[in-house]
Amino acid sequence: MAVMTAAIPATPLLEARALCFHRQDEPVFGPLDFRLDAGELTLIEGDNGSGKTTLMRILTGLLHAEEGELLWRGEPLHRDRCVGDIVFLGHQLGLKSELTPRENLRVAIGLHGHREHTDIDAVLAQVGLAGYGDEPVRRLSAGQKKRAALARLLLIPATLWLLDEPYANLDRTGIELVNRLLAEHIARGGAALVTSHGAVGFHGGEPQRIRMHA
Ligand SMILES: Nc1ncnc2c1ncn2[C@@H]1O[C@H](COP(=O)(O)OP(=O)(O)OP(=O)(O)O)[C@@H](O)[C@H]1O
Known about the structure:
Blueprint: E1 14-23, E2 26-36, E3 41-45, H1 52-59, E4 67-72, E5 75-76, H2 79-82, E6 86-89, H3 101-112, H4 120-126, H5 142-155, E7 160-164, H6 172-187, E8 191-195, E9 208-211
Parallel strand pairs: 3-8, 3-9, 6-7, 7-8
Antiparallel strand pairs: 1-2, 1-4, 4-5
Helix pairs in contact: 3-5, 4-5
The protein binds adenosine-5'-triphosphate.
Organism: Rhodanobacter glycinis
Keywords: ATP-binding, Cytochrome c-type biogenesis, Membrane, Nucleotide-binding, Translocase, Transport
Domain ABC transporter: 14-212
């Protein structure tokens, strides 16, 4: 006799259920529902001011959404529980301008851990900063600073990348670099939420989309 077994849906990496955010009682966005699984890339789309950066800040624990649920691996998302597992690259790149890229990367590894089989020199070369590792960050161009921030993504073992306008300030090879890094991250079972006002030339198939509106 054949035994029928119902498929049990796997717990998503990240799930939002009826998530809403208000400022001074004015809605910024929501209710928002989405799920993100390992090996998936999702684009967050919306007009200026629709709440994309706000959502990213909520996901990193910098802001709190009073309404709705946010689950990380099936449990309420708390910053302490996902330190090192979620990394945010926003408009502020999180680099100390007096330190060199190499020193900044050492700090990042010290705070968030070190991904296996990676080293700083190889990663600097990968992002096009070979020869700039020992320059203070303040002497780098905007695009070079962005590349130094992208290098951090490669060195720490985070599963979820939150990238807010990752293509800003990058030239054509930099844009290709972001697309390649995303494709590799997704292929090794990582996940990414990405905002962009430009077209995203992601190589790993058609991404999911979240549309933000108040
Ligand atoms: N620090 C703040 N204090 C008060 N209101 C803010 C603050 N930051 C953002 N807002 C407001 O929250 C709303 C959402 O802003 P947010 O930066 O999340 O939008 P966004 O979709 O990322 O916009 P953009 O596409 O322009 O980057 C906007 O109306 C904005 O004015």
